[in-house]
Every structure is written in C-alpha cells, then in structure tokens.
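Reopening: Pyridoxamine 5'-phosphate oxidase still failing for me.
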Amino acid sequence: MRHGWITTLRRDGSPRTSRVWFVESGGGIWLATAEANRKVADIRRDARSTFAIEGCHGAQAMTASIEPIDSELGVLASFKRDYDGWDAADSAVDGPRVLIRLTPASHVSL
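Support: Ran it again with your exact input. Result attached.
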C-alpha cells in the first residue's frame, strides 16, 4: 500500500495536510474521500494544493478537482486492486463519497 500527503488551503490560507491512499491513472493522481471531508471543502474553495508520496523527497504543486465517485470506474477498480479489495465508493461508513483528481500545476503560488 502506498501513502501520500495532500496539503490543501483552509479558508484563512493556512495549510491542512492529510495522509491519504492514492492511485495514479490517466496522467493524474486520484484520491477517494467522504464528500463531507474538510479537504473537499478546501478544494472547492481553492484548487491549489501540493502532493507528496510518502518516502520520497519533495512535493509537487497540483491543481485539484472534485469528481463524482462513479465518474471513473477504472480508478475505482485500481483502488480495489491496490488496497486489498477496498471499495472506494462505499458510502456505508462515511456517507457520500467523491474522487479528488490531482494534476500537476504549470504555475501555482502557495
């Protein structure tokens, strides 16, 4: 299992960092999370973020977007394969879920 760290910006501009599971697909990095999660609200307000892979040096400036949980079936299959059968779309525990797509930013000021 691979872990990463996403940093989003709170309303006051201070950073919020979370350890996350992720998959890579279609030139982007994908996360799955509860729609009520604070990082989702951060991204909806400000798409600027950074992402670092645990155990690697440095972080990449990224642009984040929120996608419907069922919009990328291949991404959901990758989560299931990479994380021991985990169903990233299962809303039973945390309520409705979304995908976060991270793409490298050409220019981001944090």
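The beta strands are 3-9, 15-21, 23-25, 28-34, 48-53, 60-68, 97-104. If you still see a failure, please send the error message rather than a screenshot.
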